[in-house]
Amino acid sequence: MKILLAEYAVGTGMGGTFLLEGRAMLQTIAGSFTRLGHEVVYPSAGTTLINGTSALSNEDNFVAVLEREAKKCDAGLVIAPDELLFDLTSVIENNTLNLGCTPESAALCADKVRCTEVLNSAGIPVPQIISQDHAKGGYYVVKPRYGCASEDTRICTHFTQQEGFIATEYIEGEHLSVSLVCGEKSLPLTVNKQMIVIHPENENSEIEYNGNLTPYITARQKELYDTAISATDALSCRGYVGVDIVLADKPYVVDVNPRPTTSLFSISKVMKQEIADLLLKNRLGGLPDSVDISGEYMFTKEDLK
User: Fold this and answer.
1) pTM (2 d.p.)
2) Which CATH number among 3.90.480.10, 3.30.470.20, 3.40.50.1820, 3.40.430.10 corresponds to the domain 174-198+208-304?
3) How far is CA 34 from CA 1, 45, 162, in A?
4) Which of 4, 149, 173, 250 is 20 to 30 Å apart from 90, CA to CA?
5) What is the pLDDT of residue 305?
6) Does CATH place domain 2-99 in 3.40.50.11770?
7) Closest Cα to residue 111, out of 88, 86, 145?
8) d(CA 73, CA 97)
9) DSSP strand pairing (208-214 vs 297-299)
10) Peptide bond before 215: cis, by omega within 30 degrees of 0?
């Protein structure tokens, strides 16, 4: 098969940590498809991967290149900032077999207010959204209503309501994520320990993601898996999904990423199965009931350079 893999930072020429993480995810997936004998094409503004063939693109023509290449491919997958996923996955969905989330589910996950409301209604523990008028002291997390993971996310004791941002209660606990492939059924891959840097003693301290450990061994694995599956079911997710969780008295879902996440970089080092095979079987049939994990792998953002 000919597979289109479109990662936004690589395809538009973004720099910094976005490119580091994007390139790592893209190379991981491209390598997996290549090992299975598939042909891979990817939009690129200059980055060259070990596997696959690049299609020249930039910020201005990324969508046009995506549509043109999708029409030539048997299947495609987009990795992009959550707020862009609806439009970009719509291009894939309309032109080839979409191996990722549906546009509608991607839009729901991207909106932190709507996402929280849906999860809350489904009985899934989430940090509650707090208005400025109802703040009662303590720590709060302020983050974009539409945004990726820890981007522009900070912890504070006082906040002013800003357009485009929400504030939630701060949950003290372990910062973890659950990676899974879902569709007709759900296949948990791993629990990952996220290396999160927080300085709550500093007002307006940014919350920074700096890598992870895979797998994270915990006696509460089933509880974490069940919570992640319930969350992705409630949001009608499909494909690879990363569910960010703070594990306290119970698992609190803080974010649902309806796309490949950086954790895939470490998962590929310890999982016997190829992620490409799982993505294809998730759409075409034959997804296994479990995966084989051996050893552990830890990385930091510095390692991605």
Assistant:
1) 0.95
2) 3.30.470.20
3) 10, 21, 46
4) 149
5) 80
6) yes
7) 145
8) 9
9) antiparallel
10) yes
